[in-house]
Structures are given as C-alpha cells and as structure tokens.
Amino acid sequence: MTKTTYKIMPPSMLNASIALPSSKSISNRALIINALAGARFMPENLSDCDDTEVVVKALTNRPPVIDVKAAGTAMRFMTAYLAVTQGEHVITGTKRMQHRPIGVLVDALRKLGADIDYEGKQGFPPLRIKGKALPGGRLVIPGDVSSQYTSALMMIGPVLQNGLELHLAGNIVSRPYIDLTLYMMKQYGADADWTGGDTITIRPQNYTSRPYVIENDWTSASYWYEMMALYDNHEDTLVLNGLADGSKQGDSAVKYIYSLLGIKTAFENVESEHPTAVTLAHRMGRVQRLDFDFVNCPDLAQTVVTSCCALDIPFHFTGLSSLKIKETDRIEALKTELRKLGYLIRSENDSELIWEHGRCDPSFEPIDTYEDHRMAMAFAPLAIRFPGLQINNPQVVSKSYPKFWDDLKLAGFKIESL
Fold first, then answer.
1. Residue 209 covered by a domain
2. Which pTM was predicted?
3. Binding positions for 3-phosphoshikimate (predicted)?
C-alpha cells in the first residue's frame, strides 16, 4: 500500500451539520442475529465501514476462506456464528489480527461442543471451523476480557439445543456493549436476560426475522465533540444528525464526559430512543482535572486523552486494560504519538493513563496511526491547536468512518495530501 500523509489546516471557526455514519457495533450485531433468524429482511441504514462490509460479504458469499482483514468484531462474531452453522470454513485476517488473542472464545465454544482447530499458533487466528448444531449449556468465562467474546456467545445462545447460561467471572468490562447485545437479541424475539449480577440466561427459542433500522454512531460523534471542545469561539455550533438520547450504545457516555470539558448537548427530539439532530455548543466552565473510569467505554479513551492534553487538563484514566489488545497497543501508541506534540503521559498497571502537565520538546513529526482508525480520528482534531498537523496512513478511518475526511472538509478543514 502506498504511504499517504495528510496535512491538516483547521477553519477559523466551527459551524457545520454532519451526517454521522451508522453504528458499526449495532450493524454487526444486527447482521449476525438477522442471519441466525433466517435473514428474511436486511437491516436498514447499515454501516458502510470496512468492518461491516466483511461481515456482509461473509454472510452473503460464505466462501471456504473468510478473510475479515482487520475487523476484530467480525473475527469474534463470525467465529461463533460459523460454529453453529453447517459448513466448514477457515477464518483469518491481517497480520495484526493473527496476533490478537481469541483463545478465550475458542475454549468457550469448544466447551459448548464446537469443532474448531487452530491453523497456526495456538490461541490465535486463523481458525478452521466445522459448523454443526451444538448442545449448549452452562459456561464460565472471564468478565474482564473483550466484551465481544461475551456478545459472540450470547448471540448464538437462542439456537443452542439447551440454550446458554453464561457466568462472567470477576470484573465485567464494557457492560454497556453486553447490554446492547441483550437488547437487540430481545428485539429479535430472544428469551434472554440477566438472572444475577454476573449471569445471563438465554433459553432455546428461535429468533424472529423482522425489519430493523440501525441508528447512527455515538463513537464517531466523539471526534466532533473533541473538535468543539478545542475551539475557543463560544459562538460556534455543530449539528450531528441521527443520534438518540436514550441509545443503548455505551459510547453515548461521550455527552456526559464532554459536558465536563465545556460542551453542552441539546437534542431536537426529546423522545429518548428516536434518532434526531443533536446540537453541540459551548457552556461556561470546564473541570480543572478529570479522573474517569473507561471500563464501560474504552473506545472513547483516545479521544478524551488527546482532548485533555490539548486543553491542558491533567487526568488519571482507569479501566483501559482492553486497549492493549485492540487494533494496536493503544496505551503505548498514545504515549509515543503525544510525545511528538510535547506531551509526556505515563501508564500504570497496563490499564491506566496519567498526565500531570508533563511536557517535552515537541518534534512535530507526522502522527503514526498503527493501522488503527481511532488513532487517526482522535489525533486529527489536534490540528486545531497545531495547524499543519500531519497524519500518516489516514485511510485507516475506513474501518469505521469512511467519510471522516470528507466530513472534515465539509466543516471547513483544508486537507493536503503530501
């Protein structure tokens, strides 16, 4: 792939109306559940991102070898789906994907009766899966690994012969994503619920195929919240379309976090579960320091870290253990790239990030993205404070927000390809 670098120049003020992409998280769950329901209807307003595209292709074409590229969600969800669906497939991905652990999910599926073998290194993709009807039963898995493992197992629960009783041991991370999965399963007719603080019970009862409309993405909204926070002009307003106040998306927490950073959120439609236009504006005052536990919304961490540095707000962020097994080691990537802009942040316990105004001489080298879409999108707004900021391999945004750069141009940013 030819290396590309973007140079970003910000507009003098921020006034725009942005049509956000549809939710990748909801799209991928809807596709798997819909397929298990018989796929009489195709979900509407599907995300056009890379991650969703690989799921659509896999479910439509069902090739012998399924390449999910860099899509971690697709790897986990499709592994569980293929285990309960007739046929033999190999599922693989990029080099980075082949270094992202999947042993917890494979072990759990094997305990349910699945026929899965590793094609290479034990505990990692690629996998060979021979799909068949599975008995199901009771499972215990760690609650502090990726919630995508939990969601993958939950979604196949209704089609298991004896259903599924899933016990999550220890601390449970990203619980809103688990609740989102449960909510969507119920919308498709599943008999499933929490039956204790750490146990989900799913009874054997087939899904019912139905029309389904995907709402837009709160995680993508976070980059616009960051941009708004970095502008000092209190006359600026920004409209983000297609968001619901009562969304089950865990990253809707962004509206609370950025209220602490001086941004007010106003919904045009007050019916909580109906997507509507959201207007962002400045409010008086910001916190002097921010301490926050990201255990329920880890995908917001990069955006909030870069925002706080640029706003000179010291922080102590916890609940970040899953960042080390994302598209890259996001904890180390943040430390390395912020140093280029003169910020010295430190990590503790592989799950915490801390900044106490630590500074160094900036090099202003181009920001590297590590094949991680969220690195590109979290750093791009920093051009507001560092005009001419350069970002390497900006095309990685296609993983979740393919039109990100087009939307920046729509908002008045000038982007030059070097």
1. no
2. 0.87
3. 24-25, 29, 146-148, 174, 299, 326
